[in-house]
Design brief:
Layout: H1 3-21, H2 31-47, H3 51-63, H4 70-77, H5 89-93, H6 98-110, H7 114-123, H8 126-134, H9 138-145, E1 157-158, E2 164-166, H10 171-179
Antiparallel strand pairs: 1-2
Helix pairs in contact: 1-2, 1-10, 3-4, 6-8
């Protein structure tokens, strides 16, 4: 991905902060929300194709009383992390507003594997959720990060003819875009 595309993605991310968080946080605190949200969108995009397989595997393991599910769920996800919540960011966007969205969002966060929980804890992201709900911006943030004109997935987005519409974003590009 070239530098102009990375700059466009970085500008997109930080414009969300300016648009949604301006009246909720002082500018220096935007990072407390935008960085974890960027990571969540990336993880959500990476896990999207394996979501149903993970949910099916989780149900099977629970039905059979398997306590140590970590390896099987990682394998189902095809990643070193997974999410067992019924929610995705797209499903959250359609789930309502206010306290209902808050509860669903927390369920979504709780579904992530332990290694992702550690990342969220380092961000202290859960401390921000009620502020976002009270300011009525959580749903808008979710919708903004789901914008089809930006791709935070490592996989390219193809058009109807199979041509690359939006290139995938590798891990280095992801780090560069979120730091700018």
């Amino acid at each position: 991905m070239d530098q102009s595309q990375l700059k466009w993605i970085a500008d997109f991310i930080w414009n969300i902060a300016d648009d949604r968080l301006r009246d909720v946080y002082v500018r220096g605190k935007y990072r407390d929300v935008i960085l974890p949200f960027t990571v969540l969108r990336r993880l959500d995009a990476v896990l999207e194709s394996s979501k149903d397989a993970v949910l099916e595997r989780k149900k099977f393991l629970d039905q059979h009383g398997v306590l140590d599910q970590e390896g099987a769920l990682r394998m189902a996800a095809g990643q070193a992390f997974y999410n067992t919540s019924e929610f995705t960011l797209s499903r959250l966007a359609a789930s309502g507003q206010g306290q209902r969205l808050r509860d669903n969002f927390i369920d979504y966060l709780d579904g992530f594997s332990h290694n992702v929980q550690e990342i969220l804890a380092k961000f202290k992201f859960r401390d921000q959720i009620q502020t976002l709900v009270d300011a009525n911006v959580l749903g808008y943030l979710i919708e903004d990060f789901l914008n089809p004109d930006v791709n935070l997935s490592p996989q390219p987005v193809l058009d109807g003819d199979g041509r690359i519409k939006l290139p995938g974003l590798d891990n280095h590009g992801m780090g560069t875009a979120s730091r700018n």
